[in-house]
Structure formats: structure tokens, C-alpha cells
Design brief:
The chain is of the alpha+beta class. Helices cover 23% and strands 30% of the residues. It is built from 10 helices and 21 strands. The strands form 4 sheets. Strands 11-21-16-12-15-14-13 form a 7-stranded mixed sheet. Strands 1, 4, 17, 18, 19 and 20 form a 6-stranded mixed sheet that branches. Helix 2 crosses helix 6. It is globular, with a radius of gyration of 24 Å.
Amino acid sequence: MPLGTVDSASYEPALKQLWPQDKLDLIFYREHAFAALMSKADDFVGDPGKLHNVVSYAPPQGGGSFTEALANQSTGREADFIVSRKSNYQIVTIDNQSAMAAARRKGAVVPLLQKKHKDSLDNLSRNHALWLWLNEGGSRGRIGSQAGAVITLTSPADASRFEVDMQIRASLNDGSDAGHVLRADTALITKINRATGEITVDAIPGSWTNNDYLFRNGDFGGGYTGIPAWLPTDRSTLSTPFLTIDRSQDAERLAGSFVEGNGGSRLETVKSLAKDVRTLGGGRPDYCFVHPDDFYFMELEMENTVSRREDIKVAPSGRRGATIGFSGLMVQSGNSKIMVLEDINCPLGTGYVLQRDTWKFHHLGGLPHRATEGMGAGGGRAEATADAVQWRWRIFGNLVCLEPGKNGVCVF
């Protein structure tokens, strides 16, 4: 349907035509494999915004005879992971003078609306997909060294998590504990060398030190409970309560399997992890996610094997949305046929072997959706301190692992 002339009073119907669900899906999921593949449920309701994810990890016990079964019976054990609903916002602002100037030509305001919202949705999609691969602390990288106004990250691959004009904060800790605190002052990113992992800022605060964790301003301690939180590589922390649970009670079933590759073959490490997920956790893994750099080396390793590339198609939002394709490497491990996919948000040097149907993103409202409360006639709201109109895109939700034991993580 042609949009025709669009003025401030007809922004809302124009936006509905510009951003139907299939177009939102293409922006949100086309480059983010795990975000597209995981199940979603618009059911994160209730106050104070907490979800009880009950995981059974020890079945009821019995005995060989009736007498022994009666004497030895147990009720089984469940872990109640209490997951909090998190918020992720993106704000779009269009100044009225630009809108009025564009509206003088038929339909000219449409490209303005489309560009502003697309750029904002691109950013929200990247942050949503990234948060799925961070712990709830929200750290995007660490300071390796500092020289003048240049920060060199400990891992150059983490530069993909930062943007020019992003305001960042630092902390001695990763933000995953209530006792962690931010250091004073913020810095504004003015330049990025993504190949070398160098970030230039307006000025590095004097309190920041090497090995500090870096955060987008506002994210500290407020991110999703991402995959690395559910499947930690630091196994010494399992006795520390995670969502109220001491996971050392049954490490593999409550925190997934773990394999240390010790610099060996990535393919063999993934196969070893898949074996442990089956034997230790009772899972049937079907996907493995790795960083593109690790995917590249796995592809080289597999050139002389019978494993091959395969394509899949997925509808992230069901029938009402778009269908998106991904290409991966097929790996056979025992009875499990595993598709290895690259995801730019996956931490470099790690591999996550997952059973897809054990992951779900519970959310409230659309994923994403525009705020409609207090809208004006044109679908936006007047800025209080500027002659402009503002729209708000948002996500309310969090990632849940229904059965951590049927998944695992390895370090290459």
C-alpha cells in the first residue's frame, strides 16, 4: 500500500506500514543466529517481574524391593532459578523542522522516518543479541592497556561490542554481583580500530586501570541472564548462589557440562563436549555456537572430513514473521547430529553445545515493540526540552534455560 503524503498527524499509520513483523524480523535476526533460533514466549507477566524456572536435577529414589523402596524413598530435588525481567530501550527522535521540510514534497518524509527507525532498530537488535551472550553484569570487554586516550581491549574481537558515540563506564568487577560498583566518571568513544581492538575516547578517567571491565553506560548489572551465566566457564564459582541456587550440588545438571580444549582441535573439543552433554546431562544437543574466528578454524579442520555444510531456515516469530536462513557445519557426535553456527556475539575462544528446545526468551509485549502510552496524534510524544517528536522502542524480558544439564560449554 503506498504511503502517500506523510505529515506529523499520520506518522503512526506510516510506521505500521514501514515496520510490519516480517521487516522487524529481518532487522532483528538476520545476522544473529541464536537470537533467531531460540523459542520466544510473550508470557513474562506479573509483578515484581520475576519468573520461577524450576529445574529437576535429582529424581525420586527407591529400592530393589518394596521394603527397600519404601525405606529409601525420596521426593526428588528441584532448583528454583528466580529470573528477573530486564528492560532494553532504544529512543528515536525526529526534530519537527526536518519533518516539516521533508513533508513539503509528497512522501519525502517517509525516507526520514524509515532511516531514523531502521538505524535505531539496528542498534537495539545488536544490543538484544549481544545481551544473550553476556552474563547479567553486562560487561562488553576489558581494558588491556591504556595510552593517552586510547584503550586497547584484552580481546580485539570484543571491539564489535562498542560503537562510536557510546558512553562507557568501568569497574573492577564484571557487574554480576550486587556488591560490585562502578568507578567514577564516564568516557565517550570517538574512534574505534576494530582490527586491533583499540578504542579512542575523549579522555580516560584517572580511576580506570588495566583489567577493568567496560560497560555501556546504563548497562551495569542490568543485562539479560545470558548463555555464559547459565553455562559458566569458571567452575570455581558454582557454589556462589546464581539466581538463588548453589549449583555445586550437581554441577553438570545445574550448570551444564564443561570441557577444556587446551589448545587442541576445535572439532575434537566440540565432539568431546557433545559426548559429555549426552552422558553426564542426558541431553541430545543439536546446535553449537562459536565466534566467526573459531568457525573459520573449524571449517579448515573439517575440510578433509565427511562433515559438510548445510543450510537451515527458521521463522523467529512464527507464521506472522519472516523466514531467515543460516548456513552451518554438520558434526556427528554419537547419536547427535550437531549444526555448528557462527554468531558474532559468542565469546571468542569458546564453544556452546546446546539443545535448542531447552532455551526460551520470556518477554512482555512484542519483541521488540513500540511504547504507545501517552502517544500524541501522530504516534509519538513531544520532547519536553526540544522542538522534536520522540518514539520509544523497547524489550521487556529475559533468557531462561529450562534444563542447563542438557547443554555445555568448552574453551578451545
